[in-house]
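Changelog-linked ticket: 2-phosphoglycolic acid example.
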Amino acid sequence: MIRPTSPRVTVFHNERALAHATAQRVADLLARNPRVVLGLPTGRTPVRLYRELVALYARGRADFSQATTFNLDEFFGIDASHPGSYRTFMVEHLFGRVNLSPERIHFLNGAAPDPQAECQRYEDEISAAGGIDLQILGIGTNGHIGFNEPARELAARTHRVRLKTETRRANAALFGGDPGRVPPEALSMGMGTIMQARTILLLATGKSKARCIARLLDGTVTTRLPASFLQLHADVDVLMDEAAASEVTSAPRRAAP
Ligand code: PGA
């Protein structure tokens, strides 16, 4: 069998080691290319990464002053200032704690009156920024990336999506623990938007991700597991802890140093 060079799979002892190494990688990239364009995720998985980045910034080891960011997705029908919005999450975990310049932070506006125009605006802004250099992703337990949910067909560009029950459940903590209060729709970068990023890091931690990570790496590409499309990208790292890697049998694994 020909061993693919991408996705490269690295397994860390635990979530902390993963976050530490990933933050260092982002800081190195910022040092090499201060004007880097970053694609950022929300969710439980990147919380530790953002904590590590904030710590590096506080020690003068990460400078975001020239960097540009684009977040993957946002709930539809709520304002950026809503306590459950992804924008609020990012302010709390990263934007409010590092020296990113507000005009270089880009976000989908979930309260936009014309969602289609809003999605086009986002695509245009990504193009105008020269595309995304490094896209960081989490993965849903159903294999979604961004809010590209498993389906018969996937959308290439930024679009409005209906969220699956399991996705609303996974986001309930942001809405007082009640999945029924999680907005039923969202705006999300499309599969093509994500796949055009020059480099992609997919982070996965915990046993609940083990099954979809194993499927993601098994060689099949299917719209039923949107993350499986990452197998078609030339520069992807799948970074995970032991628990998330526990069902992987098909890919060569590299232990983290
Ligand atoms: P999680 O979400 O990090 O909260 O597990 C990941 C995702 O849905 O992309």
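Closing comment: Example verified and attached. The chain has a mean pLDDT of 95. The first helix runs from residue 15 to 32.
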